[in-house]
Amino acid sequence: MSDRGGGTDTRRRLGVRLLLPLKAPGLPRVPGFLALLVLRWPRLMPPTMRWKVAAKGLGLVVATQLARQSAEGGGRGASDVGRSLEEIGFRQGSALREQLGLGRTPLECAQAVALANRLYAIAAVVRAQSDNEARVVTPGCPWSRESWWGQRPCGAFSRYETGLTRGLNPRVSLHYESKRTRGDTQCVGVYRWRTADAGSAPPATLGVSPHQDIDQPSHH
Q: What Cα–Cα distance (Å) separates residue 50 from each residue in 46, 77, 93, 108?
């Protein structure tokens, strides 16, 4: 009788656990029964979940690599990872410029960076401040809510945005007015012509009025 009762309690506890969200580094939080379902039948995993796993996993990989290299070689890890991400961004930006003619203005550079953010479930919004300046404003990335995230991996990914901008147009500069990892409420990247080029920026290239918000289409 007691064994039968113990089995019932075990099944009840298991049932409760399967209803709770799975908590695993780099994986989306989904109910345990759904995780078991797709583990048994991988083809049932929705494309949206695959995308979330890939996006979140990339942040974890970078953060883990930075932590390991930092422990082994001081600050060199951040430099190596950041340099690699910047190079990837530069190559992608150069391809967009050469094949699509993108990157003619600070606004176009900001739009490309905002789309890249959207691919990783970051709700980026582009704001055209003037003909010479545009901003990308985000409430922060999903990684910023994880215990393994911090200033070092954030800085490495920022170098990707720097590389992307440089590949699109080396005359456009990027600096960050605010960041969540610095304690700010949002992240703001400012795109403008470099000082030597500010006076030569074509005034009618943007086609928008100052302070107009340009929302990128949502991908999540």
A: 7, 29, 26, 29
Which residues are CB-neighbours of 187 under 8 A, at least 6 positions away? Answer: 137, 138, 139, 140, 141, 176, 178, 179, 180
HSE, side-chain direction, 13 A CA sphere, residue 120: 18
The neighbour count for residue 13, using CB atoms within 10 Å, is 10
Adjacency order of strands within the sheet including 133-138: 172-178, 187-193, 133-138, 125-130, 212-215
Taking CA atoms, 99 is separated from 92, 95, 161, 202, 219, in Å, by 11, 6, 19, 22, 23
- Distance from the Cα of residue 216 to its chain's centroid: 14
11 pLDDT higher than 80: no
Q: Which domains does the chain have, with CATH numbers?
A: 2-44 (no CATH), 75-215 (3.30.1380)
How far apart, in Å, are the Cα atoms of 148 and each of 57, 142, 159, 212? 12, 12, 19, 36
φ, ψ (nearest 5 deg) of residue 60: -65, -40
Reported in sequence order, the residue ranges of 3-144 that DSSP labels E, i.e. its strands, are 125-130, 133-138
Q: Considering the entire predicted model, what is its pTM? A: 0.73
Contact 96, 102 (CB under 8 A): yes
- pLDDT digit string (tens) for 46-66? 777 777 777 778 888 889 988
Query: Do 17 and 32 meet the contact criterion of CB atoms below 8 Å apart?
Result: yes
